[in-house]
Write a structure and sequence with these properties.
238 residues, mainly alpha
Length: 238
C-alpha cells in the first residue's frame, strides 16, 4: 500500500505541532517572518525521540534527527540576522540537504522491500492504525495541537490585517514597482517571478529571478520589521 498521502498528512501535523508550540506560524510562512527557528529545535527533537521510542515498541529502528526543513529555515534566519545573502544561504542549505540522505533514508534503503513497507506503515500509519509520526504529536506538544494551530492562523490573519502592517505592505509594493516588478503583495513575488520566467529563455529567466529576489530582499526588510513587531505583540495578547 502506498502511504505517501498519510505521510503528507502527518507532515502537516508536524507543522501544526511547531505552530502550536511557539504560538506562531513560522513553518507555515517562513519567508514572511524572522522568528528564530532555534526556539523550536528542542520541541522537534522531543517529538523525534517519541517517534523513535514508538518505533522501537513496534519492532523498528528510527534515528532521531533534525529535519532538513528546519536546517534550511535556520540557515535563512541566521543569514537574515547577520545581514548576509538570504537566498544564497537558503540555496546552499537546500543543496546540502538534497545531496545528503537522512539517516533514516539510509536505514530504510538497507531493508528488504517488505520490511520497507512495514517500516513505512509503522511510521506513517495505515487506514486502520495511526503511525508513530502522528500518534506522538500530542505528547510532544504538551498542548492541544489543533487549538494551537487555529490560534496561530487566527493571529497571523489578524497581524496581516493590522493597519500598520498593511501600510508597510503598500510601501513594499511601491518599492518593488518603482523598479518594474509588478507585485501586489509581499507573498506575490514567487508567483510573479515564476510567471515572468516561464516565457523567457533559461538564461534570461535566471537573470530576472536574481534581480527580482535581490530587490525583494531589500524592499521586504521594513515590512518584516513591522510585521514581526505586530505579530509578537498579538502573540502576547496585546
Amino acid at each position: 500500500m502506498d502511504n505517501s498521502n498519510r505521510r503528507n498528512r502527518a507532515l502537516l501535523s508536524v507543522a501544526a505541532l511547531i505552530a502550536a508550540t511557539i504560538g506562531t506560524s513560522i513553518i507555515l510562512q517562513p519567508a514572511a517572518h524572522s522568528e528564530q527557528p532555534s526556539l523550536i529545535r528542542d520541541q522537534v527533537l522531543r517529538h523525534e525521540q517519541l517517534v523513535a521510542d514508538c518505533m522501537k515498541v513496534r519492532g523498528f529502528e528510527y534515528e532521531v534527527t533534525v529535519p532538513g526543513d528546519l536546517l534550511v529555515e535556520e540557515a535563512r534566519a541566521a543569514a537574515e540576522a547577520d545581514g548576509r545573502d538570504i537566498r544564497a544561504a537558503v540555496e546552499q542549505a537546500s543543496a546540502a540537504r538534497g545531496t545528503s540522505p537522512s539517516p533514516n533514508e539510509l536505514l530504510v534503503a538497507g531493508l528488504e522491500p517488505r520490511q520497507q513497507q512495514a517500516w513505512g506503515d509503522a511510521l506513517w500509519g495505515t487506514d486502520d492504525t495511526a503511525g508513530c509520526m502522528d500518534s506522538t504529536l500530542q505528547a510532544a506538544a504538551r498542548v492541544d495541537v489543533e487549538a494551537g494551530l487555529r490560534r496561530a492562523e487566527a493571529i497571523l490573519a489578524q497581524a496581516k490585517s493590522d493597519p500598520t502592517v498593511q501600510s508597510a505592505e503598500r510601501t513594499y509594493v511601491a518599492c518593488m514597482t518603482t523598479q518594474g516588478y509588478a507585485v501586489t503583495s509581499v507573498d506575490g513575488i514567487h508567483e510573479y517571478v515564476g510567471r515572468r520566467a516561464e516565457v523567457l529563455s533559461e538564461e534570461a529567466g535566471q537573470k530576472l529571478e536574481d534581480k527580482a529576489y535581490a530587490r525583494h530582499d531589500a524592499c521586504v526588510r521594513p515590512y518584516n520589521q513591522t510585521f514581526n513587531a505586530t505579530h509578537l505583540r498579538l502573540l502576547g495578547g496585546k
